[in-house]
Design goal:
- There is one protein chain.
- By secondary structure, the protein is mostly helical.
- It contains 13 helices and no strands.
- The longest helix is centred in the N-terminal third of the chain and has 36 residues.
- The radius of gyration is 21 Å and the shape is globular.
- The N and C termini lie far apart (about 45 Å).
Length: about 300
C-alpha cells in the first residue's frame, strides 16, 4: 500500500510538472508572439501561401527551435543519443504548442472561422506560429521559476533574507507602474495600426467578451501560474489588490486605461465616436496591453 501511494504521488507530481511546463510555454509564447498576431501582412501571407512555402516555414522554425534547445539544453553528463533526441522532442512540442495557441488566438480575433479554407488556416497558423514557438522554447528552457530554484537549494537559502524586501517592494503602486510600462512597451506599436480597427469592426459582443476573459486568464497565467521567477513571493502578498485575482483584475483595468490613452494619442478614437467604438477598440488593444502588463510585473 505504501509503495502504491508513493507511485501515485510520483505520478501526480509528474503530471503537475508537465502542466507547469505547458503553462510556462504558452505564457512565453504569448509574450513573444502577440505583436505578430496583430499584423495583417502576416495574415495575408498565410492566406495566399502554398504548400511548399508552408513546409519551408515549418522546417525553418523547427531548425531554429532545435538549435536553441540543443544549445541551451546541452549537458556534459548526457549521452550522445540524449543530446540529440531530447532537443528534437522538445522542439516538436514547442512547435505544436505554438501552432495550437496561434490557431486559437486567431479564432478569438476572428481571423479564422468555420468558413475559412483549410489551406488558409494552415498558412496563417504556421507563419504566425514562428515567434510563438520561439517564445515557448525560450520560456521552457530559460525562464524557470521558484519551484526549480528550490529544487537546486537556492530558493531556501535566499528566501528568508529576500522575502521582507520583496514584499515591501510589491505594493499596488509598483504593480501599476510596471503594468503601465509593460502595456505601453508591447501595445504602443500596435495602437496606431489599422489592425485594431479591422478586428474591432468584425468582433461581436460575445467575441469581445471572450477577448476580455482571455486577457484576464492569460495575464493571470503569466504572473501566477507559469512558474516564472518571483511567483511564490507574489502569493505571500497581503491586501485586496495584492491577491492573485484582485491584482489581475486591477492590472487589466490599468491596461485598458493605457489602451485608451494610446488610442487617443494616435487619434484612432475621438470624442465624436460612439461609445461602442471606444469599447471595442479598447478591448481589442487590451489583449496585447494586458500581456505586456503581465510581463512588466514579472520584472518587479
Amino acid at each position: 500500500m505504501v509503495r502504491r501511494s508513493r507511485q501515485r504521488q510520483s505520478l501526480a507530481w509528474g503530471w503537475l510538472e508537465e502542466f507547469d511546463e505547458l503553462v510556462r510555454g504558452v505564457s512565453g509564447g504569448f509574450l513573444f508572439g502577440i505583436p505578430l498576431l496583430y499584423t495583417m501582412e502576416v495574415w495575408w501571407i498565410g492566406s495566399f501561401s502554398r504548400a511548399p512555402m508552408r513546409l519551408g516555414a515549418l522546417a525553418v522554425t523547427y531548425f531554429v527551435v532545435f538549435v536553441f534547445n540543443r544549445t541551451v539544453g546541452f549537458r556534459d553528463n548526457q549521452d550522445i543519443k540524449s543530446r540529440w533526441r531530447d532537443p528534437a522532442m522538445e522542439s516538436v512540442e514547442a512547435i505544436a504548442i505554438g501552432l495550437v495557441c496561434t490557431t486559437l488566438t486567431l479564432i478569438l480575433l476572428g481571423q479564422i472561422n468555420p468558413r475559412t479554407p483549410l489551406n488558409e488556416i494552415l498558412g496563417k497558423a504556421i507563419f504566425e506560429g514562428l515567434p510563438f514557438s520561439l517564445g515557448v522554447a525560450l520560456a521552457t528552457s530559460l525562464m524557470s521559476g521558484d519551484r526549480y530554484d528550490s529544487e537546486n537549494g537556492n530558493g531556501d537559502r535566499d528566501s528568508h533574507e529576500n522575502d521582507s524586501w520583496m514584499l515591501s517592494q510589491m505594493e499596488p503602486s509598483a504593480d501599476i507602474g510596471a503594468t503601465l510600462l509593460g502595456a505601453i512597451f508591447i501595445a504602443f506599436s500596435i495602437a496606431p495600426t489599422d489592425e485594431v480597427a479591422m478586428l474591432a469592426a468584425s468582433a461581436s459582443p460575445q467575441g469581445l467578451a471572450a477577448i476580455a476573459l482571455s486577457s484576464l486568464l492569460i495575464s493571470y497565467g503569466i504572473v501566477f501560474s507559469a512558474g516564472f521567477r518571483g511567483q511564490e513571493k507574489r502569493f505571500k502578498q497581503q491586501g485586496m489588490f495584492q491577491k492573485p485575482v484582485g491584482e489581475t483584475v486591477m492590472c487589466y483595468l490599468v491596461s485598458l486605461a493605457a489602451s485608451v490613452v494610446m488610442l487617443s494619442f494616435f487619434q484612432k478614437v475621438t470624442f465624436s465616436d460612439p461609445w461602442q467604438i471606444w469599447v471595442s477598440y479598447t478591448i481589442i488593444l487590451g489583449l496585447p496591453a494586458s500581456i505586456g502588463g503581465a510581463a512588466g510585473r514579472l520584472a518587479v
